[in-house]
Every structure is written in structure tokens, then in C-alpha cells.
Design brief:
With 322 residues, this protein is of the alpha/beta class. It folds into two domains: 11-232, P-loop containing nucleotide triphosphate hydrolases (Rossmann fold), CATH 3.40.50.300; 239-305, Alpha-Beta Plaits, CATH 3.30.70. Helices cover 35% and strands 28% of the residues. The protein is built from eleven helices and 14 strands. The strands form three sheets. A six-stranded mixed β-sheet has the order 6-7-8-3-9-10, sandwiched between helices. Strands 2-1-4-5 form a four-stranded antiparallel β-sheet, covered by helices on one side. The two termini are 44 Å apart.
């Protein structure tokens, strides 16, 4: 596969056989995936899975041991400067000089993109307004809270109006209002045409934002797909859980449900029962008819589909605690 420099493509990121080894240890093991333009693409994996190593290679901060990748058709090995022109990067830990004023930090970074002084001042002030840091432009970074430092890091990633935004754990350790702020901003940027590559440990965040996800474990890609497609795949391979709520239950009704073909187990807690059904079993209407026949007033029936946590744990070999 040849990754041509600068060709017009519908793919924002193409990763081909990307590999990184350290003294015999393979941190990233011959991985392949594609991010389409306009995606909000979730990159998931447990600690030590190879996420940050992959991101450092994509952003040209780390040279791969084998394989390559292209961002908007620009190869990370042949055209690293061209790659950097088109991307914004927010690392998991922003290394700011704590004694510098926030506006001076952004001005310093803007010089790397050869932004004129006039445009620089206008752009920096707009970023302070957008990130809700207006009034703190002349404050030293050491006076900033964690959330403010994260906002400043986000601002620095937007200085060059990137077409691809690569975010490594942008909301870790932040309070709910700040997390909500970041989510809203990511959606706005995506609507404006920015492709977002989001690495996060917060599964609810990825589920809320991303249209496609890639799961990496022990340096290998275990899945790349839409969340709904992964959910369907995992649901087909596991027993189905049905939750039923009611006003009052009888032993006779429970025993009748237990006797239905495909019922594996029933767990009761107060006015709720959770029924485990065999894979491929679809007898919810029959369960309902059985309960009604035994004069049980059913107040709710819900069948649990696999969510992102279920998908994640299933694919990396973990277990869920429900």
C-alpha cells in the first residue's frame, strides 16, 4: 500500500502496519485503521494498550519501528511538517512554563505557524473568549486551575485552524460542567468540518460523541466500527438480559417463567426481576403473556442492549460488574 503525499482523499487518517518497539517490547503491533473526514473517532484501550504511543507517532513526535500513516494524504515519515500544518494536538499532560502568562504561551506557539502579529492577537483573543478564559489572559499559568490549564491546552491546539484535531484524554480529572463544556465544543468544531480523533478512558464520553470507535489492547487492534454495529456483534455472542418491573410477584408466576424454553436464570430484587435468556432467544412476548396469565401487573419491560462498556470489556477480555 502506497501512501502518497498530499493527494486528495476522503480519509483523514490512514494507518498502515504501524509498529513501535522498545528494546524488544512491542508497544504497538502492526496496526491498521482508517478515520474518515468528518468523523468523531474514539480511540479506546486499557492502560498500557498503546494509545499514547500511537498518537505520538500520528503527530510525528515518535518515529515508528515499521509501517506508516498518512494524515490528509501526507505521510508521517516523508512529510512530517506538512502533517503538522493540518493538525491540532492536545496531549494528555500539557507541559506549559508555569511562570509564563497564558497569552504569551499562545503567542509563542503561534510563531511556529508563522501567524502574523496582527492576526495572532485577534486569534488568541478569540480563543480566550471561546474557551471561556477571557479575563485571565495576563495571568501566569501557575495560577490556573486544572480545568483552566486544559482549556489553555485546547486553545493551543486550535491556533492553526486544524482540519484534524487529536485529543489525548482531554477531560480526565475535570468536573462535570467543564466536561460538558468540552463535549459541546467538540461537537461545534465537528459541525464546522473538523475531524476529531479522541482518545479517552471515559466510555460515556466516547459513547456520547463518537460515530466510530477503535479498540486497542496489548498493542493490537481488536475492533474498528460504529458503536451500534459493535453492540449488535457483542449482543449476538452473549446471553440476553431482560428486566421486568411489577407491582407484586408470586412464586407460581416465577416458576412458570422459569419453565419457559430459553430462560437460564431469574434474579429478583424487590419489585424487579432480571431474566437471563439464551443467545438468540426472543421470548419476551411469551414471558409477558405468562405473567399476565398469572395476574401479575407488569409495569415495565426492558431488554438491555450491549453498551460501550459491555463492548469494551468483551473485546479486551474483561468482566462487567452489573
Amino acid at each position: 500500500m502506497r501512501l502518497d503525499q498530499g493527494h486528495e482523499t476522503s480519509e483523514a487518517i490512514t494507518v498502515h502496519d504501524l509498529t513501535k518497539k522498545y528494546h524488544g517490547f512491542t508497544a504497538v503491533d502492526h496496526i491498521f485503521f482508517t478515520v474518515h473526514k468528518g468523523d468523531i473517532f474514539g480511540f479506546l484501550g486499557p492502560n498500557g494498550a498503546g494509545k499514547t504511543t500511537t498518537i505520538r507517532m500520528l503527530t510525528t513526535l515518535l518515529k515508528p519501528s515499521a509501517g506508516t500513516a498518512a494524515l490528509l494524504g501526507n505521510d508521517i515519515l516523508r512529510s512530517p511538517l506538512e502533517v503538522k500544518k493540518h493538525i491540532g494536538f492536545m496531549p494528555d499532560v500539557a507541559g506549559f512554563y508555569s511562570e509564563m502568562k497564558a497569552e504569551d504561551i499562545l503567542s509563542f506557539y503561534a510563531e511556529f505557524y508563522h501567524i502574523s502579529l496582527e492576526d495572532r492577537k485577534r486569534k488568541i483573543q478569540n480563543l480566550f473568549d471561546t474557551l471561556q478564559l477571557n479575563g485571565f489572559e495576563k495571568k501566569k499559568v501557575k495560577t490556573y486551575s486544572r480545568g483552566m490549564k486544559q482549556k489553555l491546552a485546547f486553545a493551543s491546539s486550535l491556533l492553526n485552524d486544524p482540519e484534524i484535531l487529536i485529543l489525548d484524554e482531554p477531560t480526565v480529572g475535570l468536573d462535570p460542567p467543564t466536561i460538558h463544556f468540552f463535549r459541546t465544543l467538540m461537537r461545534q468544531l465537528n459541525k464546522q468540518g473538523v475531524t476529531i480523533f479522541l482518545s479517552s478512558h471515559i466510555l460515556s464520553e466516547v459513547e456520547a460523541l463518537c460515530n466510530r470507535v477503535c479498540i486497542i489492547n496489548k498493542g493490537k487492534i481488536v475492533a474498528v466500527d460504529r458503536i451500534d454495529a459493535l453492540s449488535a456483534r457483542v449482543s449476538q455472542s452473549r446471553n440476553r438480559m431482560v428486566t421486568i418491573t411489577f407491582e407484586q410477584m408470586t412464586d407460581e408466576a416465577l416458576n412458570a417463567v422459569r419453565a419457559l424454553p430459553g430462560v437460564i436464570s431469574i434474579t429478583q430484587k424487590e419489585n424487579t426481576i432480571v431474566i437471563e435468556l439464551q443467545q438468540g432467544t426472543s421470548i419476551i412476548p411469551e414471558i409477558n403473556r405468562t405473567l399476565v396469565h398469572h395476574n401479575i401487573n407488569v409495569t415495565g419491560i426492558a431488554s438491555k442492549e450491549a453498551d460501550l462498556e459491555d463492548i469494551f470489556l468483551s473485546l479486551i477480555g474483561g468482566t462487567s460488574h452489573e
